[in-house]
Structure to design on (648 residues):
């Protein structure tokens, strides 16, 4: 069981979501977050005064999936989120020890 | 006990004290106080007993003639209406801001404000001249920069600058309507350019045809004019065609040339309208527009003396809005099984747009009927645009364009045959308008359809050319990259709600809260970048 965390551009959310639903990803959590990677944001001007927007709006997707499906999900996800420009985002994958369904106490991959 | 001082001792003490700044200050305060008191007493005396100092109590009572009272009264009424119509800008700003996404809100606010400023100067320079001065049937050719204009406008007896203000408020309304369908993707320079075209040329010139003193539609039906066989001239009391159809169809042209906002998916492609960001603001804005309409329609009598007309117009305006709102709510329920707030607001606005042309000539019952039809039109109009894949974020085209057409036509159906024209001394019912439903035949209806058709087709054609020109210079539409980054941030440098976000987004450089309160604390969060922005 793996956790896939993807930081993507907010305006790509619908495309990514649709692509994932199409390959049968049933559950996901999306969060509106702010952050920056290597690029470190932009400078803007308000009333002639420069200020920095260093934490840009992003969407963070969290998907828990059986290990066997991870490659396919990552491929589809990055395909849909990609524009080829700086700021497209990143995907992080980590292992998950266990999962519990609160309603009936089920454990393991069947929960997904 | 203090012994009594002689006068010379007191003077000596005063002289000493005046050397000390503290005492000098007391002295100044005391002196100012006494002076103020004396002035007040004097003023009171003058006001209560002017004879005391020789002013006459009153100017000699002049002998007033009719016009001495009528023209000021009509001017005050027109100005009051002008102020109300100007107030509609607040309504438009709120309605448009509420129905758009938060990421394009600053742009909407700027557009509404700058449109107003631009329109005012253009209407002073040549807009008013094109529209309301004498010239030929197509364009007015006098009074540029208001030079050579008479003291009062034509037969209305309204002071010319009061009339100018009233008409400027109308022109401003038209140009703001246009922006509604173009929200979220129009580049700022393009915005200025097309606004210049709309406020400076399209609205005043086409408006002249229907509202100018010698416009060819205004005199269409009489012998020796454009279409004498119709037998009736084109009528548009407060602007269903002139303001709303023109605004709505320029909006349609703009929306077509621009294309939809990035990421906008239409219903038939499995999407739907983009979510509005503040329905409270949108709804309040709609109601302020309704309020402003009490200047728009009743004020268009330009005459307080036609008091029955004002009352009728105000009541008709209200009833059409009520009917439009309720019917739109019910029709929308039929489509979605939800009591839709957005459709209800657009519904009463549709009723208001529709009643704008016929408000003077119809009965309250007629107003309800035609407002109700507008409520149906607006819902299906929104659905039609969705089907045609036209992105109109606030529904400017269905509300103002389509219901503007319906309202203009509806005069030909619902005119009761009791009312003719308004005038500076009261109503003039010598040439009443009678619509189809009241046994007047199709004469008025034909005149309305021809007049409105000419205006709509010309407006749409010219607006397409204008938008296409601006677009071909590459100035109309924001680049995809900048649209994705954010219209507000790219063009205006800030988002509408900078304090609601968790980053340093809303803080100008050098004004970091952390660094102002506790510099050490700011350093500790420096790794998040907040500290950097505070120093920049």
């Amino acid at each position: 069981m793996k956790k896939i965390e993807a930081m993507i551009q907010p305006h790509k959310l619908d495309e990514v979501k649709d692509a994932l639903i199409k390959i049968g990803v049933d559950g996901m959590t999306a969060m509106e977050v702010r952050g920056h990677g290597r690029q470190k944001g932009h400078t803007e001007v308000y009333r002639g005064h420069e200020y920095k927007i260093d934490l840009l709006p992003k969407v963070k997707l969290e998907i828990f999936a059986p290990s066997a499906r991870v490659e396919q999900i990552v491929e589809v996800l990055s395909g849909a989120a990609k524009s080829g420009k700086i700021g497209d985002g990143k995907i992080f994958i980590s292992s998950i020890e266990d999962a519990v369904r609160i309603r009936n106490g089920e454990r393991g991959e069947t929960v997904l | 006990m203090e012994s009594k001082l002689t006068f010379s001792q007191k003077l000596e003490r005063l002289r000493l004290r005046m050397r000390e700044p503290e005492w000098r200050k007391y002295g100044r305060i005391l002196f100012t106080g006494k002076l103020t008191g004396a002035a007040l007493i004097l003023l009171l005396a003058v006001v209560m007993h002017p004879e005391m100092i020789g002013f006459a109590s009153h100017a000699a009572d002049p002998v007033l003639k009719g016009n001495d009272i009528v023209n000021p009264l009509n001017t005050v009424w027109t100005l009051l209406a002008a102020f109300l119509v100007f107030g509609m800008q607040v309504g438009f700003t709120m309605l448009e801001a509420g129905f758009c996404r938060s990421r394009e809100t600053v742009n909407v606010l700027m557009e509404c404000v700058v449109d107003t400023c631009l329109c005012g100067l253009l209407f002073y320079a040549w807009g008013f001249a094109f529209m309301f001065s004498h010239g030929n049937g197509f364009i007015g050719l006098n009074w540029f920069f208001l030079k050579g204009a008479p003291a009062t406008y034509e037969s209305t007896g309204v002071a010319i600058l009061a009339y100018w203000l009233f008409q400027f408020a109308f022109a401003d309304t038209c140009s703001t309507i246009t922006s509604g369908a173009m929200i979220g993707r129009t580049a700022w320079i393009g915005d200025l350019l097309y606004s210049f075209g709309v406020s400076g040329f399209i609205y005043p010139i086409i408006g002249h045809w229907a509202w100018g003193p010698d416009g060819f539609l205004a005199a269409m039906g009489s012998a020796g004019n454009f279409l004498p066989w119709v037998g009736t001239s084109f009528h548009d009391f407060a602007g269903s065609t002139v303001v709303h159809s023109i605004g709505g169809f320029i909006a349609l042209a703009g929306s077509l040339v621009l294309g939809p906002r990035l990421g906008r998916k239409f219903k038939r492609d499995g999407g739907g309208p983009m979510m509005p960001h503040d329905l409270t603001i949108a709804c309040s804005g709609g109601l302020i527009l309704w309020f402003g309409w009490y200047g728009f329609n009743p004020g268009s009598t330009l005459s307080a003396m036609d008091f029955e007309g004002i009352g009728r117009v105000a009541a008709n305006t209200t009833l059409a809005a009520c009917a439009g709102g309720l019917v739109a709510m019910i029709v929308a329920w039929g489509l979605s099984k939800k009591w839709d707030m957005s459709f209800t607001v657009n519904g009463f606005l549709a009723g208001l747009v529709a009643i704008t042309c016929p408000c003077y000539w119809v009965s309250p019952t007629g107003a309800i009927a035609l407002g109700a039809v507008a409520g149906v039109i607006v819902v299906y109009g929104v659905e039609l645009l969705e089907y045609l894949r036209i992105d109109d974020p606030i529904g400017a085209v269905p509300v103002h364009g389509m219901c503007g057409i319906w309202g203009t036509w509806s005069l030909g159906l619902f005119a009761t045959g009791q009312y003719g024209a308004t005038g500076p001394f009261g109503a003039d019912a010598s040439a009443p308008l009678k619509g189809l439903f009241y046994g007047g035949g199709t004469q008025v209806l034909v005149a309305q359809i021809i007049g409105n058709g000419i205006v709509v087709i010309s407006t749409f054609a010219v607006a397409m050319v204008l938008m296409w020109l601006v677009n071909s210079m590459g100035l109309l539409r924001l680049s995809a990259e900048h649209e994705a980054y954010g219209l507000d941030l790219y063009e205006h440098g800030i988002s509408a709600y900078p304090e609601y976000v968790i980053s340093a987004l809303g803080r100008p450089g050098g004004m970091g809260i952390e660094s102002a309160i506790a510099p050490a604390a700011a350093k500790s969060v420096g790794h998040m970048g907040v500290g950097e922005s505070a120093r920049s």
